[in-house]
Design goal:
The chain is an alpha/beta fold. The chain has helices spanning 2-10, 21-31, 43-48, 50-55, 69-76, 102-108, 127-145, and strands spanning 14-18, 36-39, 59-62, 80-83, 87-88, 94-98, 113-119, 171-175, 185-190. It is built from seven helices and nine strands. Strands 1-9-7-4-2-3 form a six-stranded parallel β-sheet. It starts with a helix and ends in a 6-residue tail after the last strand. The mean pLDDT is 96. It binds iron/sulfur cluster.
Length: 196
């Protein structure tokens, strides 16, 4: 984890670390006030209970709470965007795969803060290994979580590079470094297994 953290920092990302998801949720809820906040689809964020914490004094857009493209668009245009990562490589690259693309767009749009929240299970060796994790570990499990009609969702353990209309793997975004349109890009790392 130390090498990855060092490289994330070299790549321009702020890194904060926590022992528990509860401590990370306290940190995020305590540091975001009076903002519009977009959240990407994420089992990790759900485990943190972040929506309810942030909604106490922010305007939060999360399609897991209010389904629909209007919510996704509002989230992408919010001042702050929070999501997880499918994988983080040893070189400090952040990888996400998306079906619709709204989660990727949310991290690319002009923002005050982009925050990636990730458990230790998302850290997975050099880039090729991290890419394999995103494609063959995270994506099938997410397809299963979302009850998609895809071959991977049956057991959640492998990718079949499907042509399903419900395929959730249509675009890959890799952050090599912090982008200049975001005032801040932060990785909140938690020493627990969270999400997929
Ligand atoms: S089988 Fe299809 S939806 Fe499932 S992980 Fe592979 S490409 Fe993605």
């Amino acid at each position: 984890m130390e090498k990855t953290i060092e490289n994330l920092r070299k790549n321009g990302f702020t890194v904060t670390t926590f022992d528990t998801a509860a401590a990370a949720a306290d940190y995020l809820a305590g540091g975001i006030h009076g903002k519009t906040v977009g959240m990407g689809g994420s089992a990790t964020l759900a485990q943190l209970g972040l929506y309810d914490r942030l909604a106490a004094d922010n305007t939060v857009f999360w399609h897991a709470k209010v389904p629909g493209d209007d919510t996704r668009l509002a989230a992408d245009n919010a001042q702050v965007y929070i999501c997880s990562a499918n994988a983080i490589s040893e070189e400090g690259f952040i990888l996400n795969i998306d079906g619709m693309g709204n989660r990727l767009a949310g991290t690319l749009m002009k923002k005050e803060r982009v925050i990636f929240v990730a458990g230790r299970n998302k850290l997975d060796g050099p880039f090729p290994q991290a890419l394999m994790r995103a494609r063959s570990v995270a994506a099938p499990k997410n397809a299963q979580r979302l009850n998609k009609k895809t071959p991977c969702a049956a057991d959640g353990s492998q990718c079949f590079d499907c042509a399903s209309p419900e395929r959730i793997c249509n675009a890959l975004l890799v952050f090599w470094k912090k982008t200049s349109w975001a005032q801040s890009m932060e990785v909140v790392l938690i020493d627990e297994d969270l999400g997929f």
